[in-house]
Amino acid sequence: MSGSAQHAVVISPAADVGPAAQHGIEMLGRALADTGLDYRNEPLGTAIRRPQGGEVCVVVGARTAPAITALEEQEWLLYNTGAPGPNGFYLSMLPGRILVVTGGDDVGVLYGCLELARLIAAEGGIPWDLEAGQTPDLELRGPAIGLQLTEVEPPRQVYEYPITPDRFGWFYDRDLWLEMFETLLSQRANVIYLWSGHPFASFVQTAQYPEALEVTPDELALNRETLAWMVAEAGRRGIQLFLMFYNIHIPLPFARHHDIPLHQPRPTELTSRYTRAVLTDFVRDFPQVGLYVCLGEVLQGDLYGTEWFTETILPAVEDGVAAAGAQAPPPILLRAHSLDPKPVIEATAGRYPALHTEAKYNGESLTTWNPRGKWQRTHRYLASLGGVHVVNIHILADLEPFRYGAVTFIQRSVRAIRHRLDSNGLHLYPLFYWEWPLSPDKAEPRLRQLDRDWIWFEAWHRYAWKCDRDADDERRYWTGRLAGQFGSEAAGAAALETLEAMGQVAPRLVRRLGITEGNRQTLSLGMTLSQLTNPARHRAYDDLWLSHAPAGERLEEFVATEVAGGTHIGETPLDVVEDAVRFASRAQAAVDAGRAAVRTGGAEYERLAGDAQAIALLADFYDLRVRAAVEILRARATFAGEPLAIAGRLREAVSLVEASVEVYRRLAGLTAGTYWYANSMQTPQRKIPFPNGKVYGHWQQCLPEYEAELANLRANAEILARGDLPPAVAERPALPGRFRGIDLTVHAGGEVFEVAEGKALFDDVDEPVVALAEELTGLRGVRFAKSAVLGGEASVEFSLAQDGHLLVGYFKDSSPTWLQVPDLETNTHADERGGLTPVLTSAVTVSWNPAVDVHAFRYEAGRHTFAPGRGAYVILGAVAADQEFTGRSVSGTEREDSFDWLYENPIRSMA
After folding, report:
1. Cis peptide before 86 (omega within 30 of 0)
2. 3-state SS, one letter per residue, for 538-578
3. Which residue, of 476, 512, 596, 617, is most buried by count of CB atoms within 10 Å of its CB?
4. Number of H helices, E strands in the chain
5. Which residues pair with 256 in a beta bridge?
6. How far apart are the C-alpha atoms of 496 and 675, rounded to whole Å?
7. Closest residue by Cα to residue 349 from 391, 304, 306
8. Would you call 155 exposed, middle or buried from its count of C-beta atoms within 10 A (0-12, 13-18, 19+)?
9. Residues 807, 858: contact at Cβ < 8 Å?
10. Integer CA distances (angstroms), 607 to 2, 269, 591, 594, in order
11. pLDDT digit string (tens) for 442-494?
């Protein structure tokens, strides 16, 4: 018993408590009132007044409060659980009926009040035997909310959305924000990261550049009012807002007014002046908002990131702080994405006192709780710099669109963040980021992610607070939480087992089989046979298995080892599909077993069961296709030109693929009634399994492609079984003829030359072209001095007389001396002009240099600048906009050796 019924309570707050602590004191008062206790507030002086009569004095204040300091000096207040650090709290009933609620800062005091209010409610009064203290493991803890949409708004690109009620009605919904703030407070989360491309032109109109404003005057006033309200209400709950922005993004009206491209890869005097002006004004008006800076993507961060940060961003923030008269500068979070952050950090030389860092955890998926390799080294380096280093749980492309509540996986991940990555911050993406606040479930009314995915948010925040918790205690805790949702302990236990097992499937599949774990791939929509057996053609992202997976083998390595009779190392593709099927089966069994015990939330339980069924079908689909891929790769490895020798393996492969398509057909039928779409990013950036996330956003849209692939495989296998070779292999196709060149005028940078055998691709060395694709012969290209561009930077200003494609030659070498093809893993804008997939491979052979692949980038008629970044390359001409590209391999053997012809229509090949 509390024994508190005989005692009135005096709440004595320190004079300097901030808004968060004051909110905690109000919560404490409500808890006392709810238990029937009399209480009153009495300001705390510099010394403690012992309570009179039967009163209990609750002293509330941070450790810096004079009265709390006095208690420490008198050794009246001793910290048996350790003195509270940032956001930490300490509760202790001292001799003399003095109950101390203190914290390492104002937010820590809030959390102390929150904990005491919970104890009062649980015990029915003041707890007399009380000593408790905690400091969170991670200093920053909270979710990302995207001011983003699922589709782009041409001529704007991804990320670029003015903040208006018609685009983001939820942003102005104060009841929704209050609900979210209270939810995050209950989870002791202390930050919200708001993501946008260039949000400032929606919140301030700078006097220097009034033309940059992207919203109407009424919308501007509403936005400013809303943000100011959010800052205040979030702050009362211990939550700081961070506003994320990309560089260099500029408003569309500003770009049109000054007749400059919307995207700027390098600083200019104009863009620097504008950015400095608008950022200064924003910081002046909203000095409490943290800034979250991405120096990569559009801006070529490795070349210009240091200059932009130190000469534009930091001066703007410093000017804004001075103009606001702020006591403390807003924190700046520097994103280590698409650039090496070390030069930027070193260049600041301690100039800014609140500079922190951020980097992704598993790239853009959840793949393993043990990231390793260069990503682990990056995190440890950033964490060693002294600021808060935040780990970003980003995008979750492999988990879309299903529920995720594998709390053990999450706990292990946070342990890795703290103990292996040495980090002390969490940045958590929602499971369906691009369509916040709605989930993708087919339900009326639409489900909210805040409701559907409550366990996702709560689990990450729980372990960000304390990650080293006892496994049995955690099982009991989460069983109880789910029992509260579904009405019985048995149903809660079944739901937990379902979520734990389901949550193992996607991470295992993507890390061993995937092409990428980010913007390009929707794992739940499957993968083609070419993507499994010839991943190099689809530009597989090697960090996926070198850093974001346990040690192990990819499919091609696995089969090569099998054929050679070698010993396998680490996790294999067959391991992951066997594990996926096992875990998926366990999830289905658990959810079925718990159905009879469900008393409440029956509709959501059935949606959970639907997810378990879909994930089980997905596991079966991958299992069958991986086994088919093994047969195809074995056939490829042993093929010596005799069709009958591989016919048996291909028959087995066809049988397995037939079974996989039948499973996929069931998956498409199931999800037709459960999900609107599989991927939240419904843009052309999504290319795996099929290009364009809107055209191929649902399983039903993908099913015909898998059926066509099966028909082609079956037809080619039948030809081989007759002892013949398919036309794609037996007959070398006729050359398509020369590309249709268009006028290309060079204004600056590089030298125009004729593309032909015997010509040099660089103007200062005699390294002639010895073999050339017929398509390129006779085009007018642009070359540079090799001594200047090898490892350096080359750009060219050019004009096209009509719409067309600029043909860029990339040397096939991964060393930094050569320009690398842009990739969506590090730059969401990489494909805005196309060009990621080569239109000719091994198209040019040059003495003493790597072979050259050709990529085509779309450009409108008019003047342009091509500034791709560091490394040597060559421009091989410009061709008409309607030029058809075959993507053929000019070397002659690459395509045949890849076996990709198995998946192509043999009749079309003959044509």
Report:
1. no
2. HCCCCHHHHCCCCCECCHHHHHHHHHHCCCCCCECHHHHHH
3. 512
4. 28, 25
5. none
6. 22
7. 306
8. exposed
9. no
10. 43, 55, 11, 13
11. 999 999 999 999 999 999 999 999 999 999 999 999 999 999 999 999 999 99
Over the stretch 710-745, which tens digit does the pLDDT of each residue have?
999 999 999 999 999 888 777 666 677 899 999 999
Torsion, Cα of 41, 44, 48, 54 (10° steps): -10
Residue 854: CB partners within 8 Å, gap ≥ 6?
773, 776, 807, 808, 809, 810, 838, 839, 840, 841, 843, 844, 876
Phi and psi at residue 486, to the nearest 5°: -110, 5
Please check the confidence at residue 4 and state whether its pLDDT lies above 70. Answer: no
DSSP-derived letter for residue 309 is: I
Query: Three-class SS of residue 49?
Result: coil
3-state per-residue secondary structure call for 812-844: CCCCCCECCCCCCCCCCCCCCCCCCCCCEEEEE
Average pLDDT over residues 121-130: 92
* Amino acid in the structure at residue 197: G
For the stretch 816-873, pLDDT in tens is 889 988 887 777 777 788 888 899 988 998 887 889 999 999 999 999 999 888 899 9
Q: Does an H or E element contain 762, and which?
A: none
Count CB neighbours of 892 within 10 A: 11
DSSP letter for each residue of 680-708: S--STT--BSSS-TTTT-SHHHHHHHHHH
Output the CA–CA distances (angstroms, integers) from residue 362 to 372, 469, 615, 674, in the order listed. 10, 23, 21, 28
Asked if residue 51 has a cis previous peptide bond (ω within 30° of 0), the answer is: no
**φ/ψ of residue 505, rounded to 5:** -75, -60
pLDDT single digits (tens) 406-439: 999 999 999 999 999 999 999 999 999 999 999 9
Give per-residue pLDDT as tens, 110-120.
999 999 999 99
Distance CA 201, CA 222 (A): 13
Residue-wise pLDDT for 639-679, tens only, equals 888 989 999 999 999 999 999 999 999 999 999 999 999 99
Q: What is the pLDDT of residue 235?
A: 97
Given CA atoms 401, 402, 406, 409 in this order, what sign does their dihedral have? negative
Confidence of residue 502 (pLDDT cuts 50, 70, 90): very high
**CB of 843 closer than 8 Å to CB of 312:** no
Q: Could you give the CA distance from residue 314 to residue 175 in angstroms, rounded to a whole number? A: 35
Cα–Cα distance, 366 to 544 (Å, whole number):
11
Q: Over 50: is that where the pLDDT of 255 sits?
A: yes
Q: What is the mean pLDDT of residues 400-406?
A: 98
Nearest to 818 by CA among 846, 792, 845: 792
- Residues 299 and 867: beta-carbon distance below 8 Å: no
End-to-end CA distance of the chain: 88
- Tally of CB atoms within 10 A around 875: 28
Q: Determine the pLDDT at residue 725.
A: 87
Q: What are phi and psi of 844, to 5 degrees?
A: -135, 130
**Burial degree of 581 (CB within 10 A; 0-12, 13-18, 19+):** middle
φ and ψ of 549, to 5 deg? -155, 155
For the chain, what's the residue count? 911
* Amino acid at residue number 538: H
Scanning the structure block, which residue is given the tokens 């929602």?
430
The rounded radius of gyration (Å) of the Cα atoms in the chain is: 31
Task: Convert the pLDDT of each residue in 616-631 to its tens digit.
Answer: 999 999 999 999 999 9
3-state secondary structure of 738: coil
CA angle centred on 48, ends 62 and 105, rounded to 5°: 0
**Residue whose C-alpha is closest to residue 785's, from 800, 763, 756, 769:** 763
| CA 278 from centre of chain | 27
